[in-house]
Specification:
This protein is mostly helical. Helices cover 87% and strands 0% of the residues.
């Protein structure tokens, strides 16, 4: 197997892990938060943080390394429109994801404390939930656009 094909395999696999884990954990966290069951929210929040640590974070690092390396090997200039837009969208997603991680850590702590004390979640938790969702939607849409650009490599402008 050539270096390029190996990098492509790692890149595609890590992109699936990145988006798949992100969507899957968001799905479960979204519905756990709507369940009104503090114990469920505590467990799911803790597992979301764990999934981000074990799966999403490594994929976030692997993606640009393999992507830049493949672009170099394929001879794409850095001014290639689809590549520029892909990088911009990836950076935008990262700008959304970074505060989401911080929010998830805080929400997991709050949910665990509320569960242990058998108390309702504080109002701040619900403010964090709203922020988490407001950041998550555009980040997910941006990643879908990145998938399209990686596959189609369209000529966006001349």
């Amino acid at each position: 197997m050539s270096l390029y094909l190996f990098l492509k395999w790692v890149h595609v696999l890590s992109s699936v892990v990145l988006v798949g884990t992100g969507f899957g954990t968001a799905f479960f966290f979204f519905y756990a938060n709507r369940s009104g069951v503090v114990a469920a929210q505590a467990v799911v929040a803790r597992l979301v943080v764990r999934a981000d640590t074990w799966f999403t974070s490594p994929a976030v690092v692997i993606q640009p390394i393999t992507g830049v390396w493949m672009a170099y090997l394929a001879g794409y200039p850095w001014t290639t429109p689809w590549l520029l837009v892909t990088v911009a969208l990836y950076l935008f997603t990262g700008a959304c994801w970074t505060p989401v991680v911080a929010l998830q850590l805080r929400m997991a702590d709050m949910a665990q404390v509320a569960h242990e004390k058998d108390e309702p979640l504080p109002k701040l938790y619900w403010q964090y939930v709203r922020r988490w969702e407001l950041l998550g939607y555009p980040a997910f849409i941006a990643m879908l656009a990145v998938f399209y650009l990686m596959v189609a490599k369209p000529a966006l402008w001349a």
